[in-house]
Amino acid sequence: MDQNTKQRLVGITVVFGFAVIFLPMILDGSGVRKNTLKVVIPPQSVVKFNPKFEQKIIELHAKVEKLPDLEPQFIDENSSARGNKVERKAVETSQKDPGAEKIQPSSNQKTQPEVEVALVGGDTWVLQVGSFKDQKKALSQRDKLRKSNIAAVFVEKFKIDKEPVYRVRLGPFLNRDQSKIALNKIKAKHDIDGLIMKYHK
Prior knowledge:
- This protein is of the alpha+beta class.
- Helix content is about 35%, strand content about 20%.
- A hairpin with a 2-residue loop joins strand 5 and strand 6.
């Protein structure tokens, strides 16, 4: 091996040794991009309190508490059952005339069958078969049902939103079973569906 070749091999070895020593110091890896996954956690939602909403609820409860109780008025003729009498009240006319006449029963009406009612305590039931704003329609249905002689039929007047409502009812009955029997008869004879409810005197 000649001298020039030996010098080249020594030079290459020295350069390689310096490269091994100094290259890691120069190349610190700052230029390498790292793939990182970022997880973004949204902030916790906060429910804001709305005082106006609570105020509206309070106002609504106040309006409900101010609603007057429905007090029915009998507009039928006097009826009796075991000594209990219900007096007829005068029906208000649309013009609220103080001289308005009381409703008189028609002369061709059949006598109502006597209905047994509870004297003291306990629940009584009625069968409501109609609710009308027109008083004449209510009385017409009452007269029609009385001809069937199923049970005592009467009309009660209520006020809903300051408007008169006339409800046609059968009874009162001592128990719910009696009112169901009357309901079945009404359906069979007149094809009228009714509502059974407790009767508050």
